Automatic annotation (TrEMBL):
Active site residues per record: K301 (proton acceptor)
Name of the molecule in the record: Ribosomal RNA large subunit methyltransferase M
Organism, scientific name: Pseudoxanthomonas sacheonensis
Ranges of residues in domain RlmM ferredoxin-like: 1-68
GO biological process: methylation
Subcellular location: Cytoplasm
Protein's UniProt keywords contain rRNA processing: yes
Reactions accelerated catalytically: cytidine(2498) in 23S rRNA + S-adenosyl-L-methionine = 2'-O-methylcytidine(2498) in 23S rRNA + S-adenosyl-L-homocysteine + H(+)
Family recorded in the similarity comment: Belongs to the class I-like SAM-binding methyltransferase superfamily. RNA methyltransferase RlmE family. RlmM subfamily.
Quaternary structure and partners: Monomer.
């Protein structure tokens, strides 16, 4: 068996399956998706999982929290000896630099957390004894994932550390600080970690840069920007938390964030307003077309049905109406719900 194993938000398996099917076909690697509703993962079967994995970079997949190349699916595992069949299935593989034993982030799989923790402690020395794992964690080697979906059913898969989520289950464990104005701050923090690499964060989030936060109240996204020492125009008719204003980096304008425009070009614009996704995409495109910002992070609230179709439509609409070269990345983040988060940057 060859293909991909990808994690997603519980309930969004059809969207991930549709995305993988369409993108695999466009990349010349047709196959079929296999999943169950609320399983929080999708298995995509094709002829060459390695080639497909290279053709579909993790950072470019919208609904995949994690992307793994499938090695084997093992059913009917004996609880008394799960290790032997895994070693047999791994025979001939190159060495691994690390081992993650996981389970999908679903209600039915969460009881497997204890098994995942204990099994990793047992499997790791067996892999080293078999010459399948480096003596110490080494990011230059691929990472082995054992994904339990039941006590007797697991997938063996491989991740390229440079082309996969760096967090177990694809979930960054972020802590909401006591002075954060709202939980929505975690969405922008995760977006900057997930949609930008370390070099981009260093280059694009420099102290003293200018930004606008549309629909800012109570100030969660503004607060994140000020933690990067950006100067922020926070646009909202509602109030901001006082500690946000106390930073000395914020100008609060009581105005409609959907109608307001800056008097001069800004480095950044962020937006988490509740509005129809196509209307948001069009307004965000206006910001780029008019040259009001160079970089943006914004959310698109998704409808209940045809969410993959709406995702494509809105992203295509944004690119088309921007009327200039823009680079776009989008993800359904762990801290998102019925929405996706988009990072866009002008390429000239």
């Amino acid at each position: 068996m060859t293909g991909l194993v990808c994690y997603c938000r519980q309930g969004f398996e059809p969207e991930l399956a549709a995305e993988l099917s369409e993108r695999a076909a466009l990349a010349g690697h047709p196959g079929y998706a296999r999943t169950e509703r609320n399983s929080a993962h999708v298995v995509f079967i094709c002829d060459d999982g390695g080639a497909l994995s290279k053709a579909l970079p993790w950072r470019e997949l919208i609904y995949a929290r994690q992307k793994l190349r499938l090695i084997a699916e093992l059913r009917g595992l004996d609880p008394k000896d799960r290790i032997t069949p895994m070693l047999v299935a791994l025979a001939g593989q190159s060495r691994f630099g690390d081992l993650w034993v996981e389970h999908p982030d679903s209600d039915t799989s969460k009881p497997l957390a204890g098994l995942a923790r204990s099994f990793g402690n047992a499997l790791r020395p067996a892999l080293r004894k078999a010459g399948l794992m480096t003596d110490k964690e080494n990011p230059r080697f691929p990472r082995l994932h054992v994904v339990f979906v039941d006590g007797d059913h697991a997938f063996l898969a491989v991740a390229d550390p440079l082309d996969s989520s760096p967090w177990p289950l694809g979930i960054p464990r972020l802590k909401l600080l006591s002075d954060a104005p709202s939980r929505s701050a975690l969405k922008l923090e995760e977006a900057l970690l997930t949609l930008l690499d370390a070099g981009e964060r260093e280059a694009l989030l420099k102290p003293g840069m200018s930004a606008a936060d549309l629909g800012a109240a109570p100030g969660g996204w503004t607060w994140i920007l000020t933690r990067h020492h950006l100067r922020v125009i926070s646009v909202d008719n509602g109030p901001l938390r006082q500690n946000v204003m106390d930073s000395g980096l914020v100008e609060h304008l009581r105005a409609d964030g959907f109608q307001w425009k800056p008097s001069q070009a800004l480095d950044w614009m962020v937006c988490d307003m509740v509005e129809q996704p196509r209307r948001v995409a069009e307004r965000m495109a206006t910001w780029f077309r008019e040259g009001w910002c160079r970089h943006a992070v914004f959310n698109l609230k998704l409808p209940m049905k045809k969410r993959w179709d709406e995702t494509q439509l809105c992203l295509d609409l944004f690119v088309e109406q921007s009327e200039k070269p823009v680079m776009v990345r989008a993800k359904q983040l762990y801290h998102d719900r019925e929405e996706i988060t988009v990072f866009a940057t002008s390429q000239r």
